[in-house]
Please model this.
Amino acid sequence: MDNGMTQAPLSVAGLGVEFSDFRAVRDVSFDVRHGESFGLVGESGSGKSTILRAIGGLAPISHGTVRFRGEPVRATRSRAFRRAVQMVFQDPYGSLHPRQTVERQLSEPIRILGLDDRMDRIRQAIEQVGLNASFLYRFPHQLSGGQRQRIAIARALLVQPEILLLDEPTSALDVSVQAEVLNLLMDLRETRGLTYLFVSHDLAVVGAMCERILVMRNGEAVELLTGDQMRSGRVSTDYARQLLRASEGYQPGITRREAG
Ligand SMILES: Nc1ncnc2c1ncn2[C@@H]1O[C@H](COP(=O)(O)OP(=O)(O)OP(=O)(O)O)[C@@H](O)[C@H]1O
Model:
């Protein structure tokens, strides 16, 4: 049976990304299943962000294929893709316009996609991220880091996406705020039936957030782990073991909750 729930909404096969003659990503393959949170982890420079950017159309696909709902994506992403797949970046300061109110920034994606019920959508999105309408008339510098990231998440949710590409979404935040935003993301995945592709260098974060995790090193996939394996340290490569050892002793205040 293939009713759209069984087909991987996103799959990557033999992906390679080259910048001039530098190969940032080599021959990486994985499927992201409907409703799961799939993690990409690895040290700085291992190619995690580049994979996310290549999927989103922000980095060149030199080799291999990215499929969305089973169909290879084209160089110019389709309208359906641009609506269904939204990105959230590490630095909400960089991704929000400094001189525009929250309301104006949230209006933009609705305008671009030509959707109606603008204010209803905006109010709904801002409430879903735990803020209220009074935030709509503030500028980014009048918000805390956590509030800014909530606005960036609200902006991604406005167009009712299916998949969020999350690039270190909490790495710029203090640990306590980080836990709040991670909990928000876990709740949203459940209530909105979202699918996540989650990039982080932080093993505790991906271990708490993800059902499956691909460990990356120097642009290559090293090992595919379940969240359970990562949390209990049952890894098979030396590299994954090294990463785990390096992250020992640091546990953010997040607790694992089973989805569904
Ligand atoms: N636009 C670009 N032009 C040239 N090289 C790039 C470009 N983008 C990324 N790279 C290089 O590709 C490699 C992988 O970078 P990438 O940002 O994907 O790694 P990462 O695992 O996400 O690391 P980090 O956690 O530091 O972001 C790095 O060596 C980086 O310098």
Observations:
- Residues 50 and 76 are 17 Å apart (CA to CA).
